[in-house]
Amino acid sequence: MKIDLFMTPGELPPSYAKGRRLVLVDVLRACTSLTVALASGAERIVPAESVEGAKRLLALLDRESTLLAGEQDGSKLPGFDLGNSPGDFRSPRVDGKTVVFTSTNAAPLMARMVDEVEKPLLSFVNMKSVVDYLRAVEKAEVSIVCAGQSGHFSLEDAVCGGMLCARLLEKGNYECNDGARAALVLYESFRADLPGLLAGCSHGRFLRELGLEEDLREAAALDSLTLVPVVRESRVTVLRPPWS
Ligand code: MLT
Question: CA 163 → CA 41, 59, 120, 181, 220, distances in Å?
Answer without folding.
Answer: 27, 40, 15, 11, 13
